[in-house]
Each structure stands twice: as C-alpha cells, then as structure tokens.
C-alpha cells in the first residue's frame, strides 16, 4: 500500500470529472468567473496531478461578460474519451449556456465551442451507447440523445430519476456502463453540509432506473468528519483495475461548524462492489492506494514571468486582454494596466493562483512607478484583503461585505518594493474558536527582513461567510495606471 494525502487536488478544484485512456488519467474542474476556464490535469496514479492546460483558454471559446457575478461563469464539466478524441461538455451560466469542446490532445488546442442552445439546465454529462448514440444527461435528472458534432438534440428531454433520497438539488449526473448495468451517479442535498452521492442502475442508458437500496452511498452530513460537503463524484478504475471515486469536499477549520477558505477541493476515495452496487470508502485526509507511488512533481516557488504567456495555473478575472495583462511589454515582468479601480469592481484587472495550502506565503516585487497595484487574497468582490502600493505609500485594505477600511499604512521610498502575505492556519482548538486562520500582510525591508503591517481574521474570507462556489485566490492587481510585477513567489507552509 502507498500512502497519500487527500485532497489530491487542493484549493478551488470542485466538480471533478475524470477519464482514463490507457495508463493515463485526465481530470477537469469548474472555473466560475475566472479565465481561462476548466483547468485540466494529467496523472498516472490518480494521486499526483499536473496541470496540462485549460480547456477554454481563448476568448473565442469563453465569454465571461464584465458584469457577470462571482460564482457564475463555468460550472461542472464532464470529460470523456471516445472514438479517439476527448470530449468536454460544460455550462457557462453567464451567457453561453451549455457547450461542448473536443481535442485529440487534452493539453490542447481544444476546438471552438459547439453550442447546445436547446439543452436546458446545468451539469451536462456524455455517455455513448454501444450503437453510437450519445446520451446527454443533465441536472434534474433528465436526459436526451444528442449529436455531439453539432450540439443538436435528437429527441425530447426526459426526466429519468429524481434522486435517491428526495433531497434537494439532484444534480451532477454521470452515466457509466459497467458490466451489465448503466449506473447513474448523482449528487443531491446541495453542495453545502447536506451534500451526498446517490446511485441508480438500469439495463439501458435511458432506464428505467432502480435506486441503490443503500442511498446515499456517500455523505458526511451530520458528522464531525474533517472533510465535509462531500459530493459531486465521478468513477474511474485505478491502474490495478480497482474502482475509485473522485469527488469534491471541503476542509472547514476553526471550531464548529467551521469555515472553509480554500473552496471545494478534489478528493480520492476507494470503491468496492457488493451485489452490483458501489460501496464508497472514506475520502480520508490520510489514505492509501494499492499501487506504487512515485513522488509527485514539486512546483517551483517562483514565477519570474519570463515566458510570453502565463503558466496555466494563473487565472484572471473574467477576461485576459493583452492591453491589460502582458509579460512582453517589459520582458520578464507581468504588467497589469488598470480598468476597474479596485477589487470591489467586476472589471478589475487581477491575475492570481488558487490558495492551495491551509498555511502559505506569497511575495511579489512590484514596481509602482507606472501606477498603483498590489497583492490580494480574494474570495469575491465583497470579500478580499490586499496590500497596495501607490508611489510613496503602502496600505493594507480589508473589504468584508458592505464594510471597507484601510487597516494599516506606511510610507516607503518610491521604488520597487516586495509586498507579502502569510496565511497562517490556527493549529489548536482554543485558537480556532475565532476562525480557521489569520491573513498577515507586510513588506520586505531593504535588508531582507519582513515587517508585518496588519493581521486580519481569515474567516471573513471563507465560503461560510461569503457564500458562493469558489475559494480563495491569491494574486496581483492594478488599481490605477500600470503596475509591474517582476516575480511572484508562493510557498506552501502546511
Ligand atoms: C455545480 C453543481 C454543484 O454545477 O455545484 O457541487 C455547482 N455541485 O453540480 C457549481 O459548482
């Protein structure tokens, strides 16, 4: 047995859909208001995942209007391999609706989107029948045959199941042909603490579906398990032929009921079969797989912005236009030119990466000679903390709901300065009553020492406070003119 740590994809990586092609695994997640959309990962062992791209990385593929709110945008994809090609279907709830893209190489390029204007709802799934019929199943749970090459519906949308428990929000369907049955896996109960996974089976893809007598087959509702909100899963076979589930869960910190700050993350759980029904093991923080594991790749701490395009892990708010975001204007620097004036604005120019560790450190060297810019920890427009430099002044700003204030400020020489944030998870329960972590901003002095300027409570940047479907993203932004960033360091401290 080889030990591994869940989540296998920490940070804002919800709604995982996985497929296997020979020895290779590919996984896709939701991306909401961020561009590019739908991050894609590769693995050989289901445990270590490397991002290979984003399925929607061209403006022609993904339109997120500047007035589309946080937690709108791109929801729950399904990723499948069929007939020598990868197929990815998803929903952009901010205008484009359901759409499908294909690729021969999952690292891209992916096709322009094939729209499915007549397909209602969210969470589309694709499954091919032996006769070549492509069944598209959506939240509800309803189904229709489609032509995946044109996006046309080839029949009427029919309700095929209402869920295993009569709970709210039967959604996230994935239809799998395993052995003699078509298994319809769904999530229900909503994506918060009541989340659960149920399953039904039928001898044809269209039903009639017989519910599993043990539904829900996975839920952590009403427990004090450290992983909560478990749901929205997909099934895959491991390298040894055993069955596994990828699913979303959250790690609330800071007492009961807890606040989770990293968003919904991707976990891996074992599946066994009893009487033709899957039995899902615990998505435990400390878990193991029965095949050998090589150490995973360690991502570099520093991005020097030395490439003409940004690494695929960088995400921008809603769009990424050359005139607002470039590494070629001053080679080796990320130059951000302001549009919105602050992180309160939907059109702010912000480029960040998911916070993936409960404790972490970020630093960036900013040249403020061309404008005002800063380093932020962002949940949404109404929940963000940042440190900003403007000529000769540095200030720490907190926005929580309707309240916004400058919590600290200091004058600095008008030259490039290192801005920093340390996110520190609270380790003990006594500490944890006030929240899961603190978010500490400061600057690096010319002699390399770090001067803390403000310590802020992390729970206000949690999903339990802010709502929504996302998690924290740490990144840089421009508030006025052009702010230029020489490098950005992200150091895990867990
Ligand atoms: C998604 C739904 C869900 O479409 O949350 O947890 C929604 N599941 O299936 C957004 O991620």
Automatic annotation (TrEMBL):
Occurrences of domain Beta-xylosidase C-terminal Concanavalin A-like (ranges): 302-491
Catalytic-site annotation from UniProt? 15 (proton acceptor), 171 (proton donor)
* GO terms under biological process: carbohydrate metabolic process
One Gene Ontology molecular-function label: hydrolase activity, hydrolyzing O-glycosyl compounds
Q: List the Pfam families hit by this protein, alphabetically.
A: GH43_C2, Glyco_hydro_43
Q: Which domain of life is it from?
A: Bacteria
Q: Which CDD domains match?
A: GH43_XynB-like
Q: Which PANTHER family match?
A: BETA-XYLOSIDASE (PTHR42812), BETA-XYLOSIDASE-RELATED (PTHR42812:SF12)
Q: Which family does it belong to?
A: Belongs to the glycosyl hydrolase 43 family.
**Name the UniProt record assigns to this protein:** Beta-xylosidase
The scientific name of the source species is: Saccharothrix variisporea
